[in-house]
Amino acid sequence: MDLATKAKITWCPGCPNGGILVAFREAVTDLVNDGKLKPENLVAAAGIGCHGKITDYLNTNTFTSLHGRVIANMEGIKMANPLLMVVGFSGDGDSYSEGVGHLVHAARRNSDINLFVHDNQVFALTTGQATPTTPVGFKGKSTPYGSIESPFNPLLFMLSSGATFVARTYALDIAKTKEIMKAAIAHKGFSFVDIIQPCITFYDTREYFKDRVYWIDENEPKNDLAHAMEAVRASGAPGGADAKVPLGIFYRVEQPSFEEQLYK
Amino acid sequence: MLFGSPTKKASPHENIFTVGIGGAAGDGAREAGASLAELLNDFSFEAFVSFDYPSLIRGGHNFSRVSFSGEKIHSDHSALDVLVALNEETLTIHRNELHKDAVVLADSFEKEDLERFGANAVVLPMKEFAQKIGAPPITRTSAALGAACYLLGFSLDNMKAVLNDVFKNKSLDANLKLAEMGYEHLEKLQFRHWKKLTPQRKEEAELTDGNTAFAKGLVAAGLDFYFAYPMTPSSSILHFLAKQQKEYKIKVVQPESELAVINMALGAAYAGKRAAVGTATGGFALMQEAFALSGMAELPLAIAVSQRYAPATGTPTYTSQGDLQFVLHSGHGEFPRIVLAPGDPKEAFACGAEALNFAWKYQTPVIVLLDRQLSESLETSAANPAKIAVERGKIAEGVPENYGRYKITPDGISPMIFPGTPGAVVKVDSYEHDENGIAIDEAEKVKAMGDKRFAKAGSIAKEMGAHNTIKVYGDKSSRDVIVFWGSTKGAVLEAAKYLAKPVKLLQIVWMEPFDAERVAAELGGAKTIIDVETNRTAQLAALIREKTGVRIDKKILQYNARPFDPLELAEKINNYLK
After folding, report:
1. Cis preceding-peptide flag for B311 (omega within 30 of 0)
2. What distances in angstroms separate CA B153 from CA A106, B148, B191, B459, one per listed residue?
3. I need a surface site. Which of B174, B184, B227, B298 has the fewest CB within 10 A?
4. Residue B304: its pLDDT value, please?
5. The domain spanning residue A207 has which CATH number?
6. Which residue ranges make up each domain of chain B?
7. In a domain, A6, yes or no
8. B278: Cβ–Cβ under 8 A, 6 or more apart, which residues?
9. CB contact, 8 Å: B266 with chain A?
C-alpha cells in the first residue's frame, strides 16, 4: 500500500527520522496485508518538533497537534471511536518535557493508544537545546556552559506510572523498529515505545550508540515489573561512558483498557 | 438598613418576601434554602435563591437567601423578612440586614439579641426537635421550613403534600415530622401570619440554576462527550452530567488538567463526536493554546466559561463579570469564534444548545460565558422547549475524489468526513495547511486558508438576523437606556420595578459577533445611557464603544465580588435619572 504523500520531506538528509517513517509505513502495510487493520481505521497523530513532520509524509488519517498535547488528542480520538487504531508520534521535548503530565496519566489510565517517542535527547527543530533526556554537561545554545540537570529515565518512569507495554528501539535498526511497532499496536492498552533517534545535526550520538545498544533476550519474562525495572535501570544514564543500552520489549501485561471500561 | 429608601412603587416587603438561612458549613443552610424554594415553587410562587459560601468544606459561614413573590422575580433581595439562624454567628453577621418586622428563628438567643429583636425573636428548638425524634442534626432545618409555611399561612395538610414531593428520596419521614413540629410550634405561639401572597403563575415551572440549564441545553442539542476538570463555579455542570450520563447516553470524563480536557475534546470532535468542555475563567486561561487549535484545525467545540472574581485564584466562590474582554480576545492568532452571554437559566439552556449547534455548523469554537451568580443561583424558570433541532453541520456525501478536509468553499465551511470512513483520508493540522491538511507556509497559500476561515465569520454574522442577539425590556420608547449583560440582567430587571420612571433596558446577549447595527439603533437618540456591570473596567461599555462608536459615560460598576442588590441598584440608577 502506498502511504507516501506529495509533501517534500524536510528532515536533514540522513536523519534517522526517515528510518522511523519507513519502519512505520512497513508495519502498517504488513498489518493491512495481514487483515489486521483496515486502512481507514488508522489515525496517526503527532506533536510539534522534528518528529511532528511525519504526519505530512503519511497518506492516512492524521492529527497534527500542538507541542506537548498529542497524547490528550489521541485519548480523545480513541474514546470517541474505539474502533480506530490510534498511533502517536512524539519527541523527548514534546512528551517528556512540555507534555509529561499527559504521559503519566495516559499510562495509569491504560488508554488503548500507541505512543512512539522520537528520543534524540535534544530540541532539534529549535536548533539545539537540552531536553529531559539530555546528559549532564551537554553544551547547547541554552546551556553554553554545559547542562547541569540530570536526565530522567523514560522507561522507568513509564513502568512506575502503570504503562502496560514498555519497549525501546533504535531508529537506525529499521527491521527491529518495525517489529516493535507491530507488537505495540497489537497490544491492548497503553503502549509506550522510546525510539533512540540520534540527531545528526545538533547531537550526533550515532557513534556513541553504535556499540552500546543491544537487544535483550526475547525469552526474558515480560510480565514481571520488578524484573523490567531492573532491566531498564541497567542501561544507566545514556551518555555515561560505560553504559550499555538494552533494546526490546521490557514489559507487557494485559489490563482492562480505559475505553473498555468507559463503554462497559 | 443596607440601603436607603428608593422611590418605590411597592415595598418589597409587601409583595416580595425574603428568607435568609445561615449556619456553619455542613449545617445544611444551602440545602434548606433550596428545599424552601422547591416548596414555594410547588405552591406556584416565583423564587430566586442565592448562595453565599466560602471556599472550604466545614466551619465557615454558609448562607442561602430565598426571595419569593406571587409574580416574576429576577433576583433575590438583601433585606430579610425572616432570618433562620442555625448558629450564633448567623445572628451577628446578618442582624443589620433585617427589615423592621423581620422574624428571627433560632434555637436560642443571647440576652442582648432578645432585647434587639424583641417580639420578633422566636425560639424554635430545632436541635431539640431533631433529637427528640432521633433524626440527624442536619434535618433540623426542616423545622424552620415548617415555621415559614406557618408564616405564609399554608394549611398543614397542603404543606405536607408539597413536602412529600420536595423530600422524596431525602429522609422523608424525619423531614416531614420536623416541618410539622416547626409549624405547630408557631401555631401554638399564635404567631402572626404574613400578608397573603397570591401566585400568578399558571404554567409548570422548575427551579433551576444556570449550570444545570446550560447542561440540559447541551444534551438537547445532541451532546456525546463532556470533559471537565473540577473548578468552581463550573463544577456543577460536571456533577450534573456525570450523574445523568447513563440516562442521557453521554460520556463524562474528568482528565488530569484543563489542557487535557480541551485537547481530549478536540480529539473526540475530530473522530466525529459532539464534545463540550466547561471551566472557570482560570481554567480557560490554561486552555488558551488549544482554544486556538480549535479555530485553526476547525474542530467544533462548545465551551462553558463561568466567571468568578479574579485575577489568579481570586475569590473562588464569589462572582464577577471581569472576564468579558479576556474571553473575547482569547486564543492566539485570528480566527472566528462565537461568544454568547446568557442572563438567566432559560437563556443558559438556549445558549447551551446553540453552542453545540453553531460549533458544528461553523466548525469553530463557541463560548458560553456564565458567572458564579448565574451558574449557581436557583430561579423559577419556565419549562425548556421539548425539542431542539440538532444541527450536524456540513457532512460530505460519500467520499469526494481527492477529498481535502479544508476544501475552500464560498461560505468557508468545508464538508466534514470522520476517520474510519473507507476511501477517505482525513488530515487535521495545527500548522497552517493546504486543503488536504498538509503544512504550508507560502504567502499566497497562507492567505487563502486564512481567508477561507474568515469566510465563516461572514457566514456566522449572517446568523445574527435570526437570533435574539440583544433583548429589549421596559419602556422601549424611552430615551433613557440601561445596558447590561449576563447575570446582571436579574438585578437590573428586578431594580426596574423600583425606578423613578420607565426606562429602556437593553441586554446584550451576543458578544461575538457583535450586533452593532441593532445596538446602535437602540442607543441612537438616547438621552441617558447607563452601563451596569459587576466589574471595575466597564468591559461591555468598552465593547459597545469599539463596535458602535457610542460612548457611555454613566456607569454603575460593582467589583466587590458580589452581585448587585436590586434596591441598591435602583437607587443608583434613580440618581442618574434625576
Report:
1. yes
2. 59, 9, 11, 57
3. B184
4. 98
5. 3.40.50.970
6. 12-188, 207-382, 470-577
7. no
8. B211, B226, B228, B234, B237, B238, B303, B304, B305, B306
9. yes
Contact B271, A81 (CB under 8 A): yes
Nearest CA in chain A to B293: A66
* Set of chain B residues whose Cβ sits within 8 Å of the Cβ of A112: none
> CB–CB of B68/B40 below 8 Å?
yes
Decide if A11 is inside a domain: no
CA-based nearest residue in chain B for residue A70: B263
The parent domain of residue A105 ranges over 17-262
B365-371 and B338-340 as β-strands: parallel, antiparallel, unpaired? Answer: parallel
Interface residue A80 vs chain B (CB under 8 A): yes
Decide if domain B470-577 falls under CATH 3.40.50.920: yes
Strand order in the sheet with B98-106: B121-123, B98-106, B80-85, B16-24, B61-69, B46-52, B378-382, B205-209
List of chain A residues whose C-beta atoms are within 8 Å of the C-beta of residue B276: none
- C-alpha grid cell, residue A150: 540530570
Percent of chain A residues past pLDDT 90, beyond the cut: 93
Q: Does A146 touch chain B (CB under 8 A)?
A: no
Best to test chain A binding among B277, B332, B429 (most A CBs inside 10 Å)? B429
With CB atoms and an 8 Å threshold, state whether A73 touches B225.
no
In our burial notation (b when 16+ CB lie closer than 10 A, e otherwise), range B335-357 reads bbbbbbbbbbbbbbbbbbbbbbb
The complex's ipTM? 0.97
Closest CA to A238 of A156, A143, A166: A156
Q: How far apart are CA B428 and CA B443, in angstroms?
A: 20
pLDDT value for A236: 53
Judge: B267–A75 Cβ closer than 8 Å, yes or no: yes
Residues from chain B that touch A262, judged by Cβ atoms under 8 A, are 251, 253
CATH class of the structural domain B12-188: alpha beta
Over range A183-201, report the average pLDDT: 97
Query: Do B12-188 and B470-577 share a fold?
Result: no
Asked if A105 is an interface residue toward chain B (Cβ–Cβ < 8 A), one would say: yes
Chain A CA closest to residue B426 = A61
Got the DSSP string for A99-137?
Answer: THHHHHHHHHHT-S-EEEEEE-SSBTTTTSB--TTSPTT
First vs last C-alpha separation in chain B: 23
User: In chain B, which residues have pLDDT < 50?
Assistant: 1-9
- In the structure grid, which three cell numbers stand for residue B247, read together? 440516562
At A5 the pLDDT is 96
Which residues of chain B does A84 touch, with a Cβ-Cβ cutoff of 8 Å?
271, 419-420
DSSP string, B79-137: SEEEEEESSHHHHHHHGGGEEEEEEEEES---HHHHHHHGGGEEE--HHHHHHHTT--G
Q: B420 CB near a chain A CB, below 8 Å?
A: yes
Beta carbons of A105 and B260 less than 8 Å apart:
yes
Residues in chain B closer than 8 A to A5 (CB atoms): 438
* Averaged pLDDT, A218-228: 95
- Residue to mutate among B266, B286, B291, with most A CBs inside 10 A, is B266
Nearest residue, CB atoms, B251 vs list A38, A79, A105:
A79
pLDDT at A241: 59
Residue A10 lies in a domain: no
pTM score of the predicted model: 0.96
Per-residue pLDDT of A31-67, as tens digits, reads 999 999 999 999 999 999 999 999 999 999 999 999 9
The pLDDT score that the predictor gives to residue B9 is 46
At residue A180 the predicted structure's pLDDT band, cuts being 50, 70 and 90, is very high
What is the fold of B207-382? Rossmann fold (3.40.50)
Interface touch A80/B421, C-beta < 8 Å = no
Q: CB of B398 within 8 Å of any CB in chain A?
A: no
**Total domain count for chain A?**
1
Lookup result for grid cell 517513517: A21
